[in-house]
Design goal:
7-stranded mixed beta sheet; alpha/beta
Length: 310
């Protein structure tokens, strides 16, 4: 449906139909023989084949319109979200509030059928989402450990692999990254090279940041000279960390915290990935199969923190 209504592509409905046929045929092949098409089929392979067929048929970014609309909406809400966060005097409570903001923002995910449906009906309110998170303890809940470690000794440099456009990046991740910058950390935001579903690309993220900066080049009073936006080299809603751009590989060499945000990167493909430095996997569970696998609820939250004993 998204491809069909893509106004940037001539004869989009015809091409969308071809996409549907071609992808369905490949899925049928994989059912018969899981080793066909470079299988066995996992998240990464299924996403990669889908994106390749779309591109072959001339579709570059079928979610462009909805991403632009959501980014514009979230930009207007950004100052309020930051002010509410800054008003929390207790450091621990402020960190928890920012983490809840990441979960609330991460709901904007058009890769989830249920959420795409809810979204098309009446959009999503960020503040309502913050208040309506499932109660703790979450299905994987290391928030207390993460908080305690941050309060005891902040990290020097965090690399954050980001997820969706709109509320996710602008109202979830950016206020969180701003807090890290405020406490003297370096922050690298690694975003997709090419569009995939409603994920943010690194060029879109640079554009958003230029709109959010004030006349002093700050993010609501916080110096952002230690903030870098990097091209992750990825073109999928999931990520294979063995295939990142040279830029991200280089920027990560002295990182002491890696954050993988969102269901695709943080849960479906890297929940058990081990790092040489501290790591945080954070995201909301938005597919019934993933909820079942984890033994949690749909829209449950995952915050998995691993501290490396130096």
């Amino acid at each position: 449906e998204r491809a069909e209504s893509d106004t940037y592509v001539p004869d989009a409905p015809v091409r969308a139909e071809k996409f549907a046929q071609r992808y369905a045929e490949i899925l049928e092949d994989l059912k018969k023989d899981p080793e066909s098409h470079g299988g066995p089929p996992d998240c990464i392979l299924l996403c990669r084949i889908r994106e390749l067929i779309l591109r072959e048929l001339g579709f570059r970014d079928i979610f462009k319109k909805v991403k632009d609309e959501e980014n514009a909406k979230a930009i207007t809400l950004f100052p309020d979200v930051v002010r509410l966060s800054d008003a929390i005097e207790d450091d621990g409570k402020r960190i928890e509030n920012l983490v809840r903001g990441i979960f609330a923002g991460n709901i904007f995910d058009l890769g989830s059928a249920q959420l795409a449906e809810v979204f098309s009906k009446d959009g999503m309110s960020f503040l309502a989402s913050c208040q309506n998170l499932v109660p703790r303890p979450w299905v994987i809940d290391d928030l207390d450990n993460f908080q305690a470690r941050w309060l005891k000794k902040p990290w020097k440099k965090a690399v954050i692999f980001v997820d969706n456009s709109g509320a996710d990046i602008i109202l979830g991740i950016l206020p969180f990254a701003r807090e890290m910058l405020r406490q003297g950390m370096q922050v690298v935001l690694a975003a997709n090279e090419l569009p995939s579903i409603n994920d943010i690309t690194y060029t879109e993220l640079a554009e958003i940041l230029s709109k959010l900066k004030d006349e002093n080049g700050q993010l609501m009073g916080v110096d952002i000279s230690n903030l870098l936006i990097a091209n992750s080299g990825n073109d999928l809603p999931v990520i294979d960390l063995a295939r990142v751009s040279q830029e991200v590989a280089y920027l990560s060499t002295d990182a002491d915290l890696v954050i993988l945000e969102g269901m695709g990167r943080g849960i479906e493909t890297n929940l058990y990935a081990q790092f040489k430095c501290d790591s945080l996997k954070i995201g909301m569970v938005k597919h019934p199969e993933v909820a079942q696998f984890l033994g949690g609820r749909l829209y449950d939250c995952v915050i998995k923190y691993n501290e490396v004993q130096s």
